Amino acid sequence: MGSTAPTKAELNGSNFKITRTTSPRKVPEPGSAEELSHSHCTDHMVTVRWTAAQGWETPEVKPYENLSIPPTASCLHYATECFEGMKVYRGYDGKLRLFRPDCNGERLNTSAQRSSLPGFKFEELKKLVAKLLQIDGPRWLPKSRPGSFLYIRPTIIGSGPHLGVQIPKEALLFIIAVPWPDFTKLKQDQNDDSSAPAPKGLKLFASTPDAIRAWPGGFGWAKLGANYGPSLQAHGKAQAMGFDQILWLFGEDRQVTEAGASNFFVVWRNAQSNQLELVTAPLESQLILPGVTRRSVLELVRERFSTEKQQAEGSSLAPLQVVERPLTIHEIETASREERLVEAFVSGTAYFITPVAMIRNNDLDISTLGQGGKPAGYAAQIKSWLEAIMYGKEEHDWSYVIEEEK
Fold it and tell me: Which residues carry this modification: N6-(pyridoxal phosphate)lysine (predicted)?
């Protein structure tokens, strides 16, 4: 009889070891230095160890603490690391919700395998996140603060002691929750003059040909730490010049890919058909991250900005046609010059839906605000639709309600 390989344990988000903190951490006030630091985590964290021999161990919920890994850990030498960005929302009905968590789980699983880390059943991730928030949610997102959120960071690292170019034999999945500022309001809140108008949008600096974020056959489509470190120097230089983000361009034709770590959209009137279009870079080239918010924007626009829907509801906004194709900075410049550019915005978990006011390409400043010097309102409407789902104003199957402890 032939020998049978031992069965490796799958990731299971339904069984936990739980150790509760005896020293609760201070909950920072909204807008405080602690919140703005992006580093003041909640009381607990989730950890799950994996080994090549046994598979996934039992998940643990335990007090937030520093990790202990050997100096030879694979993640420190060979970039075997990936992560996700999610939020948990305190709804106006008092409930805690995640937004499309299976999409994040599926992407983390894909990113893990792209970086030579173990895969898992992606639907288990939302169970791990939910358990953490069942414990920390009531204190860190109290029902007295509806409309607030926490940022969730699930991460997988190669954690074993095996130095050398090889697939990691050990890995660690951990999940932390962090109070996070609302970037769509932050600039206005930090303005000394409370009567000043809200900022019109982000200022983007177009990348130069010698700075490339992602390339065909690479890993720009996966959420790996290796995507971000090499881009931070260009980002810092742009901020020092007064810009908010880098608009990453690629290739001889200067294709528009992402804005910082966000997906980029433009609304314009097609020069040939005169049709209003929502245009964004495609996924097929694997130059951009398949954002969960991006996916949601496109699905909502296809459903709710159709000609039939807009006519039925008597909307003041004209119907939009979704176009996923390569677009270049030259096309955006031409559309602005010909007054066909209606609006531009970014989407992502951190920046959510934020308008773009201008792009600097070489020495040229391109206004992306359209006629009248302000956004047309498409981004604002999309943001409103998404917030209604996230905060429970609209029941939707994209919402995942977390059952809290009594």
Answer: 223
